[in-house]
Amino acid sequence: MQSLPSIRLVQENDKSLVTKINSTLVNTIPLWESQLAQAITIQRSADAAKVVKQANDLTNELLTSNAANLRQANKTIREEVERGVFDIEAVKAANADLIATIEDSLAIADQGKANRAAAEIELKKMENELRDTLSAANARGTATGHAIGSSVPNS
Q1: Coil vs helix vs strand at 125
Q2: What pTM did the predictor assign?
Q3: Domain boundaries, the chain
Q4: pLDDT tens for residues 54-108?
Q5: Integer Cα distance of 149 and 6 in angstroms
Q6: What average pLDDT does the segment 108-136 reach?
Q7: Are 134 and 149 in contact (CB under 8 A)?
Q8: Lower Cβ count inside 10 Å, N or C end of the chain?
């Protein structure tokens, strides 16, 4: 007899637990699903915000970088455009080299002319020596009957 109320009590407690478990399953699992879906949505929103921030940061970086690059490129280009076709120092150096080249050519030509004049004098001297020698040989040969040449060559 004493066990019967205690069994009933355990049975009632078991029924209450089953009802509570069923209630928990019916109410808690949908709540978990809702909370999980909300957590996923929050995470995706945070990821999307992070991507948007990165895109904005990259855009700002590109804007400032391109502006700085444009400024530097423009400065370089403008300096070259305004520089002129040639530097006066380069023209001075080229002019000095040209003058030196002309003076070198004139000096070489004068030396060549002087060398040719000296060679001409030397050739005339050698020609006269040859004529004198041939004349002397002819005079001797005529006296002995063995003339070297009948006439002296003209140059």
Answers
A1: helix
A2: 0.41
A3: 1-84, 87-146
A4: 999 999 999 999 999 999 999 999 988 888 777 888 889 999 999 999 999 999 9
A5: 174
A6: 96
A7: yes
A8: N
